[in-house]
Amino acid sequence: MIPPKPTDDPTLPAAPVPAPAGSRPSRHAAVLLAVWTLLVAGVSSGITAAVVGGDSGDIEGAAAPTVSPSIRQDTHTYPADPPQEPEAVPSPTTESFAMGEKAKSGGATVVVKKVSESASVTLDDFESEKVLKAGAGAKFAIVETTVYNDGTEPFDPVCGGGISQGLVDAEGRKFDLIEDAYLVKANRKAEACGEEVQPGFERDAVFVYKLPADASPAQWTFSGSRGMTEGDLAVVRLAVRTTSS
């Protein structure tokens, strides 16, 4: 004997038999019909929710869906980037020369002929001469030079900033050119200020610095590009001779 085919359909209560035509159904039959209708509607709703995958809370024992990440996470660890070193700033290249040598910087070539110390210098203000005194506890260091223009552009050795980058003493202290350097008698005589030295020409020039009385001049520095071009600073080592005037 072949067993009956199983079915997953739920067993519904049998519908109540309607009353014969022409007779009014009893109150009891009407109540049974209403209950049967509600049962059929509830069972159908449960089946529909199970088929379409309703919330797990609606159906007892339903497993929660597994969520897979859409992007694979990188669980590897990597070493931190090394700290960035500050960019090194190149320092100007300095060339050193002795007195009497042709010291070169940019388009300028200078020969330091003599360095002397004095308590005063003579100025020529176009109308008369006057003596400028260094004052108590001070003195002047006077650097006498011949300046050659070996470049392609004219320049003024003394005025407008000139080529001087200062005088350095034995303690490493730097001193600027005095304000009245263009009036120094030797510069007025050589026309070292106000008329530029043209390429291929030369001119004598005197550079004067005010120092403490106990300072010892050690170096004279200059730049053919007035210090605007990196790496063209020239240094001349000094040997000082003291004078009385």
Structural class, from helix and strand content?
alpha+beta
User: Residue share in helices?
Assistant: 10-25%
- State the assembly state of the protein chains: single chain
Biggest beta-sheet profile: 5 strands, mixed
Task: Count every beta strand, where a strand is a DSSP E run of 2 or more residues.
Answer: 12
Mean pLDDT: 77
**N-to-C order of helices and strands:** HEEEEEEEEHEEEE
Tertiary shape: rod-shaped
- Give the end-to-end Cα distance, rounded to a whole number of Å: 148 Å
Number of helices: 2
Rounded to the nearest angstrom, the radius of gyration is 54 Å
Strand content: 25-35%
Q: Give the strand order, joined by hyphens, for the main sheet.
A: 1-11-10-7-8
Low-confidence stretches: 47-52, 54-59, 88-92
Q: What can you see in these coordinates?
A:
The chain is an alpha+beta fold and 245 residues long. It has helices at 27-52, 185-190; strands at 94-98, 103-105, 108-118, 120-124, 129-133, 138-149, 164-169, 174-175, 202-212, 217-223, 233-237, 241-242. The protein has two helices and twelve strands. The strands form three sheets. It has a five-stranded mixed beta sheet with strand order 1-11-10-7-8, with no helix packed on it. Strands 2, 3, 6, 9 and 12 form a five-stranded mixed beta sheet that branches. The protein has a two-stranded antiparallel ribbon with strand order 4-5. Strand 4 (120-124) and strand 5 form a beta hairpin.
